[in-house]
Amino acid sequence: MPTIDNFHGIKIHVYNGEHRPPHIHAVYNEFEVLVSIEDGEIYAGYLPPKQMKMVLEWLLGNSKWALGIFYELNPNLQ
């Protein structure tokens, strides 16, 4: 599970062998949420509101980079 970033106790992961849509896994303590990289839509899981806000702000500034990593690890989904 490649961790691509870590801030305020939140870890951002991108896995290989994944599925569409391109997404990140954000983990904070016992919580985990899957967020679409392209539109910031939450489609599985939960994070407390404060941490979820930080993840969405992170994604705004890092979406192109995260999408590149996602496709690097999952070239069959391009």
Average pLDDT score: 96
Radius of gyration: 11 Å
Q: What is the overall number of helices? A: 1
Low-confidence stretches: none
Helix proportion of residues, in percent?
25-40%
Overall, the morphology is: globular
How are the strands ordered across the major sheet? 1-2-3-4-5
Describe the biggest sheet?
A: 5 strands, antiparallel
Distance between the termini: 20 Å
SS-derived structural category: alpha+beta
Instruction: Give the amount of beta strand, in percent.
Output: 25-35%
Order of helices and strands: EEEEEH
How many strand elements?
Answer: 5
> How many independent structural domains?
1
Describe the structure in brief.
This protein is an alpha+beta fold. The chain is 32% helix and 33% strand.
Folded structure, characterized:
By secondary structure, this protein is α+β, with helices and mostly antiparallel strands. It has one domain. The chain contains 1 helix and 5 strands; from the N terminus they run βββββα. It has one helix at about 50-75; strands at about 5, 10-15, 25-30, 30-35, 40-45. The chain has a 5-stranded antiparallel sheet with strand order 1-2-3-4-5. Strand 1 (about 5) and strand 2 form a beta hairpin. The longest helix has 25 residues, at about 50-75. It is globular, with a radius of gyration of 11 Å. The two termini are about 20 Å apart. The model has no long low-confidence stretch (mean pLDDT about 95).
